[in-house]
Input
Amino acid sequence: MAVTHKKRLLIRLSAKLNASVSKTGQLFKPLSLAAFTFPVTSAMAQTSDVGEASESPINLFGIPLHALEITQFSMLAGAMIAAMTSALWLIRERGRTSNQNTALRAKVGNLTSRLNQLEALAAAEGQQAVIWSSNDSKPTIVGSLDASSGAPASHAHVLAFGRWLESRSATILEHSIEDLRQNAKPFCEIIQTNNGTPIEVSGRTSGSSAIVRFCDLSKERKASAQLSISHERVVNTLETLQKLMDELNMPIWLRDKQGNLSWVNESYAKSVDCADSTAVVGSKAELFGTQALKSIVDAREGANKFAGTVSTVVGGDRMVFDVVEANGSYGSAGIGIDRTDAEAARNELKKTIRSHEETLDELTTAVAMFDENQKLRFHNLAFENLWGLDAAFLEQAPNITMFLDRMRTEGKLPEQPEWRRWKDELLSAFRATEPSEDWWHLTDGRTVRVISNPHPKGGLTWVFENLTERMDLESRFKTMVRVQGDTLNHLAEGVAVFKGDGRLQLANPIFRDLWSLADFDDENPPHIGDIARQIAERGDDVTAWEEFAGIVTGFDDERASDVGRVNVGDKMLSWMVVPLPNGQTMIAFLDITAADQIEKALRDRNEALERTAHLKNRFIQHVSYELRSPLTSIMGFTELIAMEHIGKLNEKQREYVGHIEQSSLALLSTTDDILDLASVDAGFIELSFEKVAIASTMREAAASLKDQFDAHKIDLVLRISPEADTIVADAERLKQVMHNVLANAADFAPEGSTVTFTCEKVESGVVFKVRDKGPGIEAEALKTVFERFQTEGGGRNRGAGLGLAIVKSFVDLHEGEVSIESSPSRGTEVILKFPDVPPRVSVAAE
Output
C-alpha cells in the first residue's frame, strides 16, 4: 500500500511538470515525465518484488524511500533541470526572432511603397509590364493601360489576349511571346485592341527573366500607327482579293485614269495567252476587240458603267461574256462572266422546247401549260380542237380564271352545284407538290381525264385526254368478249387456245366433252403435255397430241395452219390448227362421225355414178359409131335408088325413098350431136379460133334454114350493127350454134310470123339475139331447157332434144353466156354473148 501511494505521488508530480513545460511554447518540447515514470515504477515494482523486506527505507521530507527510489528521483530531478534550461533558451530565441520579423516587416513595407510608386509612375506614363522570372513561374504584372484603349482593368485578364485584342493582333502577340520565352527573341509590334486603339508591345530578356511591355502611344504616334495598320489592312485585303480573283475562272481587270491596264487576274492572262499580269500590262494585251472596247468606253463616259454582252475569240473558240465595267477613283474595274456554255445551253434549251412543242402539237392528247402567274404559256393544236376555242383568245395568254370563266360561259365544263368551291379546288393544283388526276363528264356526253402536274418553280401543266371513244371501245370490247365467249361456248366445234409455253388459255365445254376431260382450274391451267397424259391414261392414241405439242411449243419462224383427223373411241374428229398472234395457237375439233359416214356413202355413190357415166359415154360413143356406119350405107343406097340408075321409080316409090333420105339425114344429125356432146364431156374437142366475119356467118346460118322458114311462111329478119364486124371464134361451131337456135325458132314460131336475128356490139364483145313470137316456155321448163334430151314442148318436129344443149356447150367453150327470156305472151328470145377474144386465146397469144 505504501508503494502504491508513492507511485501516485510521483505520477502527480510528473503531470505538473509536463503542464508547466507545455506552457513555455511549441518550439521546444521536453520529454514527458511519464517516459521516466513508467520504467521507474516498473523497476520499483521489480525491486519491491525481489527484496522489499530486505532493504530499509530512507526518510526524505518525512517520506520513507529506498535507495532505488532515491536514484530514480535524482534522475527525474536532473531531467527537470534540463527542461527548465531549454525553456529559458527558447524564450530568448523567440524574442530575437520577433525582433527580426519586425525588421523584415518594415523592409517589406518600404518595398511595397516603392512598388506602388513605380506602378503609379508606369500607369501615369500608360505602360504595363508582364515579367516571367522563369519558364514555369507565374508572371508578374506591373502597371496598367488607359481604360479607353480597351485594355482590361484587372491584371487577371491581361494575358487573355483574345478577349481584348483583335484576332490577328492576338495571334501575332502570342507567337511573339512564345518566341521570346523559348528562344529569347526580342520583338516590337504595333497591335490593335477590339475598339481599334493601337498599342506598342515590346519584349526582351533580362537574365533568366522575360519582360513584355505594353505602351500607350502619343497622339501623333497613334495616328501614325493607325495609318500603318490601315495601310497594312488595305494591302492585305487587296492581296487577299487579288488571290481570290486569281482563283476565279473569269477575267478581271483594272485600268488607270488613262484607260490602260494596270492589273489583270490569271484568267485574263490565260485568255490573251500571256504568262502573268505583268506581261499583260507590259504588252497591253486586250481581251476584247476595238469595237467592243469603244462601246465600253462610251458607256463608262456616259453612265459611269458598262453592262452588256460581248463576244470575243479565246483559244480559237468564239466565246460570249457578260461584261460589267465601272468607273472608280483610281480608274475603272471590270469583270467578264463566261456565258458561252450558258448561251449554248439556252439555245439548246430553246431548240428542245421548240422540238417538244412541235412534238406536243402532233399529239392527239390536249396539253396546256400555265406559268407561275397562272397565264397560258403554251397549248397544242389538240387542246384547241378539244375545247373549240378561238386561236385569237388563246394567243392573248389568258390567265386560268379567264379560261375557266370562258369555258363555263360556253357550257364546256361539267355542271357543278358549287362552282366557286370547285374552281378553288381546281386552282389549288398550282400550290400542290404532287400530280393529281380528275375526270370531267362534260354536258355534251364526252368524258375527259384531266391530269394536273405542278412545276417545281411555279406553274402547272394540264393534260386533257378525251376518253369518250376509248370508253366506248372498252364497252364494245367487253360486250364483244362476252358475245364471243357465249358464242364459243355454244359452238358445235371444240376449241382450245394454248399460249406459247404450252399452257391452256381458254377452252369451251365442247372441247372437254369431245376428249372426256375433267374441268380445268382457271388459276392453274393445264399444260398441253398434261392433257396428252390424261388421254394416254385412258388408252387413246396420243400421236395427234404429240404433234399438237410440237406445233404449240415449237420455235419455227413461220407457223402454218394444218388440218387432219383423229379417232377418239368410236368417234371421228376433224382437227384444225391455226396460229394466232403473240405465239398463241388455236386447235379446233369437230365431231364428223355422222358426216364421215355420209361422206363415205356419198363417195361410194359418186364412184358408182362416175362408173355409170363412164359406161354411158362409152355406150353413146359406141352406139353412135355403130349407127353411123350402117346409116352411111343406107344414105348411099337411098341416093343411088333416087338417081334411078338401077331402074325407074313410080311416084309411090319415089315418095318412100324421099322419106328414107330425110329420116337418114335427121338420124345423122342426131348422131353428130351425140358425138359432139360426148367429145365435150370427154374433153377431146378442140376449137379452131380465128377471126370470123359476123355478117357473113349470120347470113350463111340463115340461108341453111331458108327452106324450113319458107315452108311455114315465116319471115326471118337479120339486123346487124355496123360496129359488129368480127370476133375471134371457131367459125364452124359458131355457125352450128346459130343454126341450132334458128332451127329451134323455126320449129316453134307460128306460121306467118316473123323471127328476128340481131347482132349488137357491146363493150366486152357481141350479143346475138333470136326472137320469135311463139307460145313461149313455161317457167318450170326454163330450168331444164339446156339439159340433154329435153323434148317436151309444142314444136312442129320432135327432135332428140340436143340442140340447145349443143348451143350451151359450144358457147361455154367460147367463154360466153347463153340465156333465154320467154313468156307465153311475149314469145321467146335466145341471147348469146360472145367475147371479142376469148380470155384463154388472149393468154395463149401473149
